[in-house]
Amino acid sequence: MRRAALLLLLLPLAGCDGIQSMTGGDGAQGAEFNSLFTLFMVVTGVVYILVIAFLIAALLRRGGKRTDVRDDPGEGHERGLTTALVVWTAFIALGLTVLTLASYFTDRSMAAAAVPANGEVLNIEITANQWWWDIRYHSPTHTETIRTANELHLPVGIPAHIQLRSTDVIHSFWVPNLAGKQDLIPGRLNDIDLLPRRTGLFRGQCAEFCGAQHAHMALDVTVESRDAFRAWWRQQAEPAKTPTTPLAMAGYNYVMQRECSVCHNISGTGATGQVAPDLTHVASRKSLAAGTLPMGRGQLYAWIADPQGVKPGNNMPYIGLEPQELHAVVAYLETLK
Amino acid sequence: MSSRSRASLALLVLVLAGCDREERNARGAPLPETGPAQQAALAATHSDPRAKQYENVSFQISQGQRLYSWMNCVGCHAHGGGGMGPPLMDEKWRYGGRMEDIVATIQKGRPNGMPAFEHKLTEQQAWQLAAYVRSLSAQPRQDVLSGRADEMSNTEPQTLDERKPVKDAAGSEPKGPVK
Question: Does the predicted interface ipTM exceed a cut of 0.90?
C-alpha cells in the first residue's frame, strides 16, 4: 500500500520531460525563469531545513523535563542567545537580498531577450476562443499576412512578440518549454515574448479553466530553422488550390454553398466566415480541433460527421451530412495542404 | 437520534436539489423530424415540440446570443433596438412571436430584406437564435434570462424587464391562443 503511494508520487516527474515540460529550457525566457526557480528553491530550502532543525533542537534541549520559571539561565546564556539571534537575522536579510537581486536581474535579462539583436522580430497575434487558438502573423508587407489556427511556427533564435486577445472568457497561453503563462482577457490586450533556443516540436495548452472543453484546447508549436520557417510562411500565404477530382469538386461546392462557409474562411474562395478556424491549409496541420485528434482522413471523417461526439459542447454544430456529402467534403479538405 | 441531528439530516436532503441538472443536447434534434411529412404536420398545428427544448433553457439562449453577433443580426436589428430591420425587443411581431414563427423567419427569410438562413445555419442554431430573440422582449421564464448583455449596454438587464405581451404589427393582440 505504502509502496504504491510512493510510486504514485513519482508520477508528477513525468511532467519534467518531453514536448510539454517546464524544465526543458528550450526558450530563453523559460531557461531564465528556471534558474531563478532553482535559486529560490535552494535558498528557501536551506531556511526551511534550518527552521525545522531549530524546532527539533528546542524540543530535545531540556529532554522533556519541566522547567521552573525561577531557574535563571544566567548572564552568559543570555549573551549567547543574542549573538545567535543577530546571526540569524543577518542570514535572513542576506537571503532576502539575494532573492530580490536575482529577481531583478532575471527580469531585466528576460526583457533583454525580447529585444532582437539585429532588429529582427516576429509579430504574431493570438486570439483565444472557446476552445481554439486563432493565430495571425503580421508582416511589414501586408500581402504576406497569414492566418492559421491551433498551430504556431517559430524560427529558432528570433524573438517573437505575441499579442494576446480573447473573444469570450479568460484563457491562458502556456507553452511550458518556452516560457511562463500569460492570460488572454476579453476586452484587453496582453502580450508575451518568446525566444526559442532550439528546434523541436512542443505543446501549448490553455492554462486557465475556460469551460467544458478547456482540456481540449491545445496548441502545436514547431520551432524550426529560419529557412524552414520561411518556406512554411510562403506555403501558408498561398491561397487555396482549386480541387481537381470530381469528388473534391463536389465537396468544394458543398462547403461554399452550405453551412461551412458561413463560419470558416478559406482564402482564395468564397468562404469568408471569420468566427471559426481558418481552413485554407487545414490538411497541412498536425492536429484537428485544437489538439483533440491527430490530422488524418479517419479523424476528418469523425470530426465532420459528429463534432459533438468528439468534443461535446464545442461550437462546431452537428450538421447531419449525407454519406455522399461527407465523402465529398473530406476529399475537398484533404486537398487543402 | 437527537432532534438536532434529525434536523440536520433533513437539511442535507435539501442538497439533493442540486442534482437536477439542466440538460444540454449538444447535437440538436435528429434530422428526420423535419422531413416533408413532419413539416406539413407542423404547419397545420403550429406547435413544434422542439420549441420546448429551446425556449426556457439558458444554455440555448446564450448560444443564440453568440450566434446573434456571429451572424451579424446586429447589422440590421442592433442589439434588439432595431435599425434597418425592425426592433426585436418590443412587443410587436410582424410575422408572429412564437418560437416556430421566428424559426420560419430565420430559415425562409421575409420580404424587405430579411435573408434566408436555411442551409447556412443548422436547424438547431435557428432554434437557439429564436430562443435568444424571444429573450430580448423577456418572453422566457425570468430565471433563464441573462443578467448581463455581452455588448455595451445602457438598458436594464433582461432579468429586470417586464414580459411584453405578443402583439401583431398593428399593435393589437392576435386572436386565438398565444403562448
Answer: no
H helix and E strand count, chain B? 7, 0
Domain span at residue A277?
Answer: 246-335
From CA A301, how far away is CA A212, in angstroms rounded?
Answer: 23
* pLDDT, tens digit (0-9, with 9 covering 90-100), for A54-112: 899 888 886 555 555 555 555 556 777 888 889 989 999 999 999 999 999 999 999 88
Q: Does B122 fall in a domain?
A: yes
Q: Tally the domains of chain A.
A: 2
CA distance B46 to chain A (A): 24
Cis ω for the linkage preceding A132 (within 30 of 0): no
B5 falls within a domain:
no
- Asked if B71's CB is within 8 angstroms of A262's CB, the reply is yes
Count Cα neighbours of A27 within 13 Å in the Cβ-side half-sphere.
Answer: 33
d(CA B171, CA B174) in angstroms, rounded, equals: 9
Q: Are residues A209 and A110 in the same domain?
A: yes
Q: Which one of A318, A325, A329 makes the best mutation probe of the B interface by having the most chain B beta carbons within 10 Å?
A: A318
Last residue of a domain, one of A213, A237, A261: A237
Q: A297 in contact with B at a CB cutoff of 8 Å?
A: no
- The answer to whether the CB atoms of B70 and A258 lie below 8 A apart is no
Residues of chain B in contact with residue A313, where contact means CB-CB under 8 angstroms, are: 24, 26
Query: Residue B128 gets which letter from DSSP?
Result: H
Tens of pLDDT, residue by residue over A229-269, are 999 999 999 999 899 999 999 999 999 999 999 999 999 99
Instruction: Please tell me which residue, A75 or A296, carries the higher pLDDT value.
Output: A296
pLDDT, greater one: B106 or B24: B106
Indicate whether A70 belongs to any domain: no
- In this structure, are A296 and A176 located in the same domain? no
pLDDT of residue B115: 93
pLDDT in tens, B93-138: 888 888 888 999 999 999 888 999 989 999 899 999 999 999 988 8
Let me know whether A162 and A274 are in one domain: no
The domain spanning residue B87 has which CATH number? 1.10.760.10
Name which of A167, A254, A258, A262 to mutate to probe chain B: the one with the most chain B Cβ atoms within 10 A of its Cβ: A262
Backbone angles phi, psi at A190, to 5 degrees: -120, 165
Cβ neighbours of A139 (radius 10 Å): 13
| A266 and A182 together in one domain | no
Tell whether A297 and A318 lie within a shared domain: yes
CB contact under 8 A, A318 and B28: yes
